[in-house]
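Request: Could I get any protein with tokenized structure?
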Amino acid sequence: VTRTIRKKGNTPMSVKIIVDSTTDLLPSIREQVTVVPLTVCFGQEEFTDGVTITHEQFYEKLVECDVLPTTSQASPAAFIRVLSETLAPGDSALILTLSSELSGTYQSAVIAAGEFEEVFVVDSSSVAIGTGILTEYALECVKKGMSAKEIAEEIDRKKKDVCVIAMLDTLEYLKKGGRISSTAAFAGGILNIKPVVNIENGRINILGKARGSKQGNNLLIQEIQKAGGIDFKLPILLGYTGLTDVLLQKYIKDSRLLWEDAAESLRYTSIGSVVGTHTGPGVIAAAFFRK
């Protein structure tokens, strides 16, 4: 989004919002921001996230491939290039990145911002749809006429209210990535364990494990309620990993009591490669601001 402001001498300037490609957004929101891509590698094959590989192509390859893909942070040069192309004289920008606990992308953005005036960087302390709803909030701040500095301060304050809670379909990808032991993953598979996780202080944290999808859905609903209730006046976004949203649609139906009186319609999107690499397909997630 660009908000045009008049400076002395009548020179137009605007505030730009820049995110990295781990931020999952609805297409209508994505059009309003500039995206700096990360890199995804399947063995020797290298792809530019969201540019040379779509979410759908990524999950097709993930299921077919025996080796877990790797993801690389966006470089300072990538941010400098985007800033140089995006900013006109007098413009300012807010860069919002995924959690610095999960990637060095934030540090790259800070290095790049040092080359420009009036460019502010905020570590979202979140990822995927969590950074997505913070981006939407930032765009609303732009529309209100706030400066890039004011928006950065407001986002830094508001990010503490963002909750991302998700249910995984399998432990297999956490095992492949070395996050849990083979024994734990094997036992989880036999018992049909569905871990429920959140993002706390920028890190993925296991809240509980349920046996089967029905118990998992119930646990997900309980954890959303425990997070302190949802502020329905602010953006809410659901997400899923994989090639189909069938599990998410079932969850929406099963958890309708959470939403039906307060939200006119629930918006959802596919979750991208950086999260998908570590969780695999079949994840359902909700991002919201707590009351």
About this structure: The first strand starts at residue 3 and ends at 6. The CA atoms of residues 52 and 73 lie 16 Å apart. The radius of gyration is 19 Å. The chain has twelve helices and 14 strands.
